[in-house]
Amino acid sequence: MSPTQLESPASSPRATQHIVDGVLSAIPARSIQGNVLREEIRAVVVEYLEHADGARKLDSRAALYPAAARWAATGVPIETVQHLVHTGFRLHLDDHATKFLRHNNINHVMDAMHTVNATVSRAYLEVASSATQRSGHQAVARALLSGRHAISVARECGIALTDHYTVLAVAADTSVRGAVSPGSFLEMLVGRVGQPMSALHSDLGGTILIQGCPDTEEIGDLVRQTALVVVAIEVDRDRIPSATEDGHELLDVVRRLHRPPGLYHFDDLAIEYQLTRPGPGRDRLETALDAVAEDPELVATLRAHINNGLNRRLTAREMHIHQNTVDYRLKRIYRLARLDSHDPGLIWKLRAALTVRDYLGLENNEEEASPI
Q: Is pTM beyond 0.70 here?
């Protein structure tokens, strides 16, 4: 019987499926974790079988490297992956056990196996190195945020500190399906800004510390690609703990006032922040619109008028009413609030009172339920 070339997986999908099923059966159920997908494994198998067949040179980074990196990141032991590699090649050889293999065929198989093993090892080592570095940055972040032992912790982790930092307080909107997570946002930042970063985060939010004072316009561009609310504060290193507390309090202000996602600075929210701090001033503003609030239509008109820069025409258009009706409602608002409608400067008090009521949740979003 003359030597026979190995079948190409492209012309023998059953061989590929055989190996895919064999590899899947070799993976412990607890190690799959939903990330080792059948199609992903199929792509890897097809790639190395085509190389074993000599059909093309193996590009180890095309399918296997990212797949192995995902397995490493999700905790699949490297011993399991190595076992899968050997299982796959053994099945491939078993499928052709009845055929004579040329010397070149065997060389292709051995070369492919070496390449796959080397690629898997490199992926696992790089993921492990990245995890170690990430752990170090997290330790430094905890030290900086607590204000204690930052220098010694940074020295132990081999991370250089700087005198100035940009603190990013981050909050995610969990109601947005498929939204960018704070962890993914951190990866986007590292790729764009290129500055060393330390961070503590979860799926709900977190704090990112960027060395120095990067271009916040670049950060804003990234934030606009997400549904995140981010507050940026530039501070000296010893003020990181207090700045972090301020940043997360400002996030709370943004959330309670129903502001849109985006990048905010302290100056953007300074007035709102001050108005919402507990004290006699907030207590007085809290009740200033009690009489007005009995008519949700008036509250909705006031909010629209303020949001439209006190422009009667825009307010009328948004509310679907005549401009004269806007004037009538505004006069009623001033009268109920016991303010002089002939003094337009008093609009600041109405704006402040509405901000406090929104922050405290006193309106219960009547304007959203209103048909107007």
A: no
Measured CA distances, 221 to 189, 218, 260, 262, 295 (Å)? 10, 5, 15, 9, 40
| Pairing mode, strands 205-211 and 197-201 | antiparallel
Neighbours of 159 (CB within 10 A): 18
Cα dihedral 357, 362, 364, 367 sign: negative
For 314-353, the pLDDT digits (tens) are 999 999 999 999 999 999 999 999 999 888 778 899 999 9
Angle between helices 347-360 and 266-275 (to 10 degrees): 80
Distance CA 37, CA 288 (A): 60
Q: Is 17 exposed, middle or buried (0-12, 13-18, 19+ CB in 10 A)?
A: middle
CA–CA dist 154, 144 (Å, integer): 9
Residues 30 and 111 occupy one common structural domain: yes
CATH number at residue 87: 1.10.490
Q: Which two tokens stand for residue 259?
A: 């502001």
- Is there a domain that residue 143 lies in? no
Q: Is residue 150 part of a domain?
A: no
What is the helix, strand, coil percentage profile of the chain, to 5?
60, 10, 30
